[in-house]
Prior knowledge:
Strand 1 (about 1-10) and strand 2 form a beta hairpin. The protein has helices at about 45-50, 55-60, 70-75, 80-110, and strands spanning about 1-10, 15-20, 35-40, 50, 65. The termini are far apart. The protein is of the alpha+beta class. The longest helix is centred in the last third of the chain and has 30 residues, at about 80-110.
Amino acid sequence: VRIRMQRHGRRNRPFYRISAIDKRTRRDGVVIEQLGWYDPYVKDPAKAVQLNEDRIKHWLQNGAQPSDTVKDFLARRGIGDLKAWEKERARQRKVVTENIAKAAAAARNGGGET
């Protein structure tokens, strides 16, 4: 189970619902439970996100994995295992920078051999 966002709203005016959903389901597929919403166009940032914190904690305790964007929302509210998420994000950044460095080195070495 993943806790992720589903896009709703009209063209050029998105509105997102935060849902518990099976990870194999498409983005706008069948929802297990609605957990809140996010409206990026609300002027007051405090009113932009509404979360059902009790149910989110329940899903996290039962093994649900939040998406990266939802992790950011939860981190701002102090919900979840923030230290583990930060450690995982740092590991991912390290892997990405190493891959970029390898690709740059390969381009430098392979660029003049044509």
